[in-house]
Amino acid sequence: MLERSRLDASRRARFAVSAPTLADVAELAGVSRQTVSNAVNNPDLLRADTLARVQQAIDQLGYKPNRAARNLRTRSSHLIGLRISPVQEGTASAVMDRFVHSLVETSGEAGYHVLLFTSDAQVTGDPLAGYDELLRSTAVDAFIVTDTYLGEGQASWLRERRAPFVAFGRPWDDANARHPWVDIDCAAGAELATRHLIDKGHTRIAWIGWKKDSVLGEERRSGWLSAMHGAGLPTTGLASRVEDAVGSGRSAAQVMLDEATPTAFVCASDTLAIGVMHALAERGLQAGDDIAVVGFDDSQVAQTVWPGLTSVRQPLEQAAIEVVKALEGLLSTPPQVGPSVMLTPTLEIRGTSGPDRS
Amino acid sequence: MLERSRLDASRRARFAVSAPTLADVAELAGVSRQTVSNAVNNPDLLRADTLARVQQAIDQLGYKPNRAARNLRTRSSHLIGLRISPVQEGTASAVMDRFVHSLVETSGEAGYHVLLFTSDAQVTGDPLAGYDELLRSTAVDAFIVTDTYLGEGQASWLRERRAPFVAFGRPWDDANARHPWVDIDCAAGAELATRHLIDKGHTRIAWIGWKKDSVLGEERRSGWLSAMHGAGLPTTGLASRVEDAVGSGRSAAQVMLDEATPTAFVCASDTLAIGVMHALAERGLQAGDDIAVVGFDDSQVAQTVWPGLTSVRQPLEQAAIEVVKALEGLLSTPPQVGPSVMLTPTLEIRGTSGPDRS
DNA sequence: GTGAAAGCGCTAACAC
DNA sequence: GTGTTAGCGCTTTCAC
Predict the structure, then answer these.
(1) Are residues B156 and B199 in the same domain?
(2) What CATH number is given to the structural domain containing A40?
(3) What's the gap between Cα A232 and its chain centre?
(4) What is the dihedral sign for C-alpha B116, B120, B126, B127?
(5) Which of residues 148-187 of B touch A (CB under 8 A)?
(6) In chain A, what residues touch B162 (CB-CB under 8 Å)?
(7) Do A87 and B97 touch (CB under 8 A)?
(8) Is the CB atom of residue A7 positioned under 7 angstroms from any atom of strand D?
């Protein structure tokens, strides 16, 4: 083992053997440090035999380039920041979880790691504080922005500072946005769900959606609308707009059942769909057999609840792949911004979407 | 604006104005670079007026220390690695999600960021590959290890390499383990659930748990056992051990209902509890009114399913706080390893745990 | 194709 | 208290 007097005591205490450096490899392979660097980063530049010798030294020592040094030199961290928002208790949502996982997996393959942070909006009062800190301290190379339906705050702030970022979610407010984004066509999802019910013979299909100020909710609602109109079916009195909560879905369904006699419900979320199922249970009705229900997001609730909630599933794995692809373009030199990507959801058909038996 | 000819073109292209450095602040404040460094890291060393002058220069320039440079110098990244495992589709589990969020929040307050990575076990065949890479490239200061019930592989591997880590989960296999850990007393959770049912008048309370090779499952089962024994109630024929899947819980409940006539079920997970509820629904029985059911983990499913699944809730927020506390000790100089922490879960009482009406 | 020199931005050690 | 010096480990010119 090489003597490493250059190492300070605290490091020795923490790690038994200090990590080998470029210099160690160079010495062992009998080449200069640059040659080792080239072997790692530009192997094509080396002669085959030199490369082999260096490679062997690298393997023998278990050399890995030191991140901090590389980051300092290249001015990049190969880290991407992702802000996560608080878990919504009492709802069925599960989108972020799956997306984060896919993102970590995909970005890992591209050589990036995902750095999580929270907005601390409740602490500092500024939801952008987390971004600012990471950006100014050059901790991350880029950001992934989600929740774009909440407004263009994040996006415009980042754009102003010329911080590279990719949005998962279209720029709802800003038609002139130039940043790369990936989104899922949730109107198509709602349309898919509605058509499925129409195929099952339903003609009075209700929409339980979110309040009008939710752009996402209006978008999903438009899918229901166009499917209904496309089939020449009535929609009057069949739409309801409420908070995204189980109780809200329940009450909305109760009112709807009394006033509009639908045979099926399409909902903007699994949370609302579960609420509808509660309303049915209260009336002794069985979702699927008596009244059809379709949710949105294919949450764990949809997957496990009796008798299985038919639900629109977002292709989050694919979304993550596209996001990372956009990211790689953005971080290459010169930066390349490809076309934005819109993905189409699928429908997971389960027990709650039975045929019309009225 | 200062002229910054030292900056390379690619950086200028990406960020409009380069980040100010220590030298910029020093120049503006009319002090040396070291003094600025002290102002940031050891403000006590400066005279009040110097500190104020430097601070003003910092604010004026919007200076933030460059992470990479600081990391290189201090040999620490203030990053902690957390391996996430694939999302389990079709189950009700939600533990990791909540834990990750709490961890990000808590560690952020302590000056650490959470770096996510996956094992890529399916790709490389080595579940420890992710750890190895991050460790050898000195990308993280420490790890948070979860899933310790799967064996001591991660822990012993990290210990061998003297990598600092805190485990969320006790060292099941290794009584001699010296690393800090935080865990939740799930036996106490199961006991809590069982006692609650006993208080409700139930005497024939069945256990639907995991297979015998699951240490976690056996631990939870022991809580049910001790509550039953403590109340002098019979347990013979009332325990079942199955896979953690809705279908398994359903079949187990069917068999149990036929053979042992329980009036209540305690389950090792919400997933199994949902399975039990399916079995009840198939027999026209109402969970809560006819037969009581209690789950484990307080998942979104428990929170939203009709009529509300009573479930054991793990104090994950508190666990994250304790983990970060242990981490701070571990990363201080000299490293301090405090006592391990065992937290007690609570019971979220909902509709499925009604009184015995038999 | 390989080596020598320089320096990224910061902080530890020491001089004053 | 403050300034000077040195160097963390790497990559980027630029000679040869």
Answers:
(1) no
(2) 1.10.260.40
(3) 36
(4) positive
(5) 161-164
(6) 14-16
(7) yes
(8) yes
Residues forming a β-bridge with B6: none
Which of A14, A18, A141 to probe by mutation at the B interface, max B CB count within 10 Å? A14
Let me know the angle formed at the C-alpha of A139 by A13 and A97, rounded to the nearest 5 degrees.
95
**In this structure, are A173 and A287 located in the same domain?**
no
Q: Which residue is nearest to nucleotide D5 (CA to C1')?
A: B34
Q: Which residues of A touch B118 (CB under 8 A)?
A: 101, 104-105, 108
> Is A325:A354 a contact under the CB 8 Å cutoff?
no
Residue B23: give the domain boundaries. Answer: 2-74
In a domain, B195, yes or no: yes
Task: Give the pLDDT of residue B122.
Answer: 54
B152 in the same domain as B67: no
User: B59, B74, B89: which is the final residue of a domain?
Assistant: B74
Residues B153-177: pLDDT tens digits?
889 999 988 899 999 999 998 888 8
Residue A72 at interface with chain B, using a CB cutoff of 8 Å: yes
Are A207 and A306 within one domain?
yes
The residue of chain A with its CA nearest to that of B97 is A97
Q: Provide the strand spans (E) within chain A.
A: 79-83, 113-117, 142-145, 165-168, 181-184, 205-210, 239-242, 264-267, 292-296, 310-313, 341-343, 346-348
Inter-chain CB proximity A118 and B104 less than 8 Å:
yes
| Closest nucleotide to B32, Cα to C1' | D3
Residues of chain A with pLDDT under 50: 1-16
Distance in angstroms (rounded) separating the CA atoms of residues B296 and B353: 13
* pLDDT per position as a tens digit, B315-333: 999 999 999 999 999 998 8
Read off the pLDDT of residues B32-51 as tens digits, 9 standing for 90 and up. 888 999 999 888 888 888 89
Please indicate, yes or no, if residue B358 is contained in any of the structural domains: no
Count the domains in chain B: 3
Pair B309, B327 in one domain: no
Regarding whether A38 and A107 lie in a shared domain, the answer is no
Domain end, chosen from B27, B52, B74, is at B74
Q: Which pLDDT value is given to residue A237?
A: 96
Establish if A335 touches chain B: CB-CB under 8 angstroms.
Answer: yes
The verdict on A59 and A171 lying in the same domain is no
Q: From residue B308, how far is each of A274, B145, B276 by CA, in Å? A: 11, 32, 14
- A229 within some domain: yes
What is the pLDDT averaged over residues B270-292? 96
Distances (CA, A) of B266 to B194, B242, B345: 7, 13, 15
Q: Which of A89, A164, A281 is nearest residue B306 as measured by Cβ atoms?
A: A281
Q: In chain A, whose CA is at the least distance from the CA of B7?
A: A75
> Which CATH number goes with the domain that contains A84?
3.40.50.2300
Which of A102, A300, A313 should one mutate to test binding to chain B, selecting the residue with the greatest count of B CBs within 10 A?
A300
DSSP conformation class of B2: -
Same domain, residue pair A151 and A100: yes
Residue B142 lies in a domain: yes
DSSP conformational letter for A44: G
Greater model confidence, A355 or B119 = A355
